[in-house]
Design a protein that fits this description.
The complex is a heterodimer of chains A (about 550) and B (about 130).
Chain A lengths: L4 H71 L2 H5 L1 H13 L4 E7 L5 E5 L3 H4 L8 H9 L1 E3 L12 E9 L2 E9 L1 H9 L8 E5 L31 E7 L2 E9 L6 E6 L1 H4 L1 H90 L6 H31 L7 E3 L1 H18 L2 E6 L7 E3 L1 H19 L3 E10 L4 E8 L29 H11 L3 E7 L3 E9 L2
Parallel strand pairs in A: 11-13
Antiparallel strand pairs in A: 1-2, 1-5, 3-4, 4-5, 6-9, 7-8, 8-9, 10-12, 13-14, 14-16, 15-16
Chain B lengths: L4 E5 L3 H13 L3 E5 L2 H10 L4 E5 L7 H11 L4 E6 L4 H9 L4 E4 L4 H19 L1
Parallel strand pairs in B: 1-2, 1-3, 3-4, 4-5
Classes of the chains: A alpha+beta (about 550), B alpha/beta (about 130).
Chain lengths: ~550, ~130
């Protein structure tokens, strides 16, 4: 039953690949996760420091404005500040080196505008701020920075108000801050192509304009970070994409600075790394697959070879056990047949004894009897010879070993057949090597084998041809080689491995027992040698015997 | 006294009976026994010069019969009768004291020759 080599090939190949690929993928994936984590941490760190810096800048801005206002409030008298022309001068100086102020106003305890310099003069001069949130807040805290609001001027603006206590009264100095300046600071955070930054107040209303959508006092389109209490960095999903947010609450106001980063931009080196890793993993997979295939090929070839060898060996074992079984059978048959033969011989002998007493000289019938009995004895004798040959096949006697000169033995053996060969016009050619050593073996058995081969050679040729006997000494294996070649009709390839089978013969019925070669085979094997055959139909056959020196 | 007495021990009836007849026709006092056991029974009451003993027999085989004969009447010469397959038995028999072995089917002349030789040996011993 033949092994399924295809299935074995695939199983082995896939097993190798799996055992190689799984660790490879595992390692690669683990490394990827590690790298991702490390890099993400780094990005978060950078983002954190960035938002901190921005927050500090904005805080500084406000601190400076408040400081400046404080300076103005405390270096000018109440009269100077409430006189509009002198307030104008003061405002010009403030305005000269800084675009941060839009207007300035002095407001009394009751919320009335005492003086105002700015673009909304007509609108605001008559306004009373008593009920305004900022008014009440500045009276409570002394300093107040507002959120962006629309106010009376119906435009988004932000104010800083400072309360000054003087003698038994207090007044408020108020400036409107140019929100463009704050916007500019925040816009400096806009790096790359996809990130955004903006300020929101506690109600999540925009205090600056973000890059992508949203107006003052609207809600930003992003997540709500307005309640951030401490600087932090978060990773969230915004509209299906992964996003980093950094949020920092300002010190001076109740605002939160939010920076939004797109990880694709930030992490593009990581992505590149992934691409390289994928490329090398794929390359690795290809190499593994190729290697697995080649290795499996080698493995399967070796298995095939071993299978073939095993099949050949078990064939030989089968052959050997066939021989043994056959020889046992032959021995049994021979013995069984011997008994009736013996009885027939004795009976015939008895008949002869009885006839001998009679006077048969003239009697025809007695003459016939006599002849018949003679013939019976002859045929019994023939049968005995056949049995003996058959039992030669089964014999397990001790071989008689002696020192043999092969060339001499061959001369002797070919001598037996020279007459017969000459009559059939067959030439026996001898090619002996000079360096053949003497060997220790059973002379009569080797002779029996050589005779068998020579007879077969002559039978194969029939008439007109040559039988060549060659001897050779093989130094490497310490063996003597005897070749018996004939120019006969040859043996077909499909019969070549059957020639040594018992009872196999190509001769007509009655002309051969088919036992000669199988006996020769078993003799040579028992002597420790080998016997082989090569043949080509129409050209001839060569039988080769190899005998060890011992 | 001088007539040769031979016992043929063989389980092949026809074979045995024919040889006995032929020996008798040649003025030899021949008798047959169909098995080893029978042969030993006969030996208790009769004497023989030569026993021709088949090796392969059912029940008691030739070798064992030989042992008994040699114990009982060691002066009797025994010739083993073997088929080709049992040559080793023949040799073993000779180790145990058989005179010779003859292979079946043997021409009567050959057998007579061997019997003669065995008889001579026996007579040589006695005389």
């Amino acid at each position: 039953m033949e092994r399924n080599y295809r299935k074995l090939w695939w199983r082995n190949c896939l097993a190798i690949i799996c055992f190689s690929v799984i660790p490879l993928l595992f390692v690669n994936f683990s490394l990827y996760l590690l790298f991702d984590r490390i890099y993400t941490e780094k990005v978060k760190e950078t983002l954190l420091s960035s938002v901190e810096n921005q927050k500090n800048t904005i805080d500084l801005f406000f601190n400076e404005r408040i400081a400046q206002l404080y300076t103005v409030a405390n270096t000018n008298t109440f009269e100077e500040l409430t006189d509009e022309s002198s307030l104008n001068k003061i405002f010009d100086v403030m305005h000269a080196k800084s675009t941060s102020y839009i207007d300035i106003g002095m407001i009394d305890n009751e919320g009335n505008h005492l003086a105002y310099v700015g673009p909304y003069y007509n609108l605001l001069k008559t306004v009373n701020y008593k009920n305004e949130l900022w008014f009440r807040a500045v009276k409570t805290h002394g300093v107040y920075v507002s959120d962006i609001f629309m106010g009376y001027r119906h435009a988004p603006h932000l104010i800083i108000a400072l309360m000054v206590k003087e003698r038994n009264t207090s007044w408020i100095l108020r400036v409107t801050i140019n929100i463009e300046n704050i916007n500019d600071i925040v816009h400096k955070s806009w790096t790359g192509k996809l990130n955004d930054a903006f300020l929101v107040n506690r109600e999540n209303m925009l205090q600056t304009l973000p890059r992508f959508g949203g107006d003052f006092l609207e809600h930003p389109t992003y997540h709500d970070f307005s309640s951030t209490a401490a600087t932090k960095v978060e990773r969230r999903v915004f509209r299906g994409t992964d996003t980093f947010y950094a949020a920092a609450p300002l010190d001076n106001t109740k605002w939160v600075l939010v920076i939004k980063e797109s990880p694709d931009e930030l992490l593009s080196p990581l992505q590149e790394g992934i691409n390289w890793a994928l490329f090398f993993t794929t390359l690795g997979l290809v190499i593994i697959a190729t290697g697995a295939a080649l290795f499996t090929n080698t493995l399967i070839d070796r298995i095939k070879k071993t299978d073939r060898e095993n099949a050949a060996k078990s064939d030989m074992l089968l052959q050997a056990s066939k021989m043994i079984a056959l020889s046992k059978m032959a021995a049994g048959i021979a013995h069984e047949v011997n008994n009736p033969l013996a009885s027939i011989a004795e009976r015939a002998g008895w008949m002869k004894d009885l006839l001998a007493d009679q006077d048969i000289a003239g009697n025809e019938i007695f003459a016939e009897f006599n002849e018949s009995v003679d013939k019976i004895e002859q045929h019994v004798d023939r049968a005995r010879k056949i049995i003996r040959n058959l039992l030669g096949f089964a014999r397990r006697g001790e071989p008689a070993t002696g020192i043999i000169n092969i060339n001499n033995l061959l001369d002797e053996t070919t001598g037996f057949l020279e007459n017969e060969a000459r009559q059939l016009n067959i030439r026996i050619e001898k090619r002996y090597a000079d360096n053949i050593p003497v060997i220790t073996s059973d002379l009569s058995q080797i002779q029996q084998v050589v005779l068998n081969l020579l007879n077969n050679a002559i039978d194969a040729i029939e008439h007109n041809g040559t039988v060549t006997v060659t001897t050779r000494y093989l130094e490497k294996t310490d063996e003597v080689e005897i070749d018996v070649a004939d120019t006969g009709k040859g043996i077909a390839e499909n019969e070549l491995n059957k020639v040594f089978d018992p009872f196999f013969t190509t001769k007509e019925v009655g002309k051969g027992t088919g036992l000669g070669l199988s006996i020769s085979y078993s003799i040579i094997e028992k002597l420790g040698g080998k016997i082989r055959v090569q043949s080509k139909v129409g050209e001839g056959t060569v039988f080769t015997i190899l005998l060890p020196k011992q | 006294m001088d007539t040769l007495r031979v016992m043929i021990v063989d389980d092949e009836d026809d074979f045995r009976e024919t040889i006995v007849k032929r020996l008798n026709a040649r003025k030899i006092l021949a008798e047959g026994a169909a098995s080893g056991v029978k042969a030993l029974e006969v030996l208790e009451t009769k004497d023989f010069d030569v026993i021709v003993l088949d090796v392969k027999m059912p029940d008691m085989d030739g070798i064992e019969t030989l042992r008994h004969i040699k114990k009982l009447k060691p002066e009797i010469e025994v010739i083993m009768l073997t088929g080709h397959a049992s040559v080793e038995f023949g040799l073993k028999g000779m180790q145990l004291g058989a005179f010779d072995y003859v292979m079946k089917p043997a021409p009567l002349n050959e057998l007579l020759d061997t019997i003669g030789q065995a008889y001579n040996k026996k007579r040589g011993l006695i005389h």
